[in-house]
Amino acid sequence: MALRHAEAGEVVDLRPLGASLADATTAALAKTEQFEAVRLVLPSGKTIPQHAVSGQITLFCIEGSVRLHTDREIVLGAGQWVYLERGEPHAVEAVEESALLLTIMFDR
Length: 108
Hints:
The protein is mainly β. The chain is 0% helix and 53% strand. It has strands at residues 27-31, 35-42, 47-51, 56-69, 73-77, 81-84, 90-105. Strands 1, 2, 3, 4, 5, 6 and 7 form a seven-stranded antiparallel sheet that branches. Strand 4 and strand 5 form a beta hairpin. The two termini are 25 Å apart.
């Protein structure tokens, strides 16, 4: 069964989940041919292995803290944002239980 995505103009609540973060899961928010948005939930210590994405990406740390491994190490804390070029190899490691807003912009 496909995940339900938000419709254009639909409001999505991305406030920190606080105590309910432990029970939350990653959820796709919206997807078109040019754009994808995901609320990415990572338990403390979880690592997303190195990979590259065919589009430009942004990561906004809603809560928690993560290490982004690119050609350097970037630590993102709550309220911090970073942009990566398409194809840039990266890995994500949760320093603590974290939620991030991932956006991907595709060239299609």
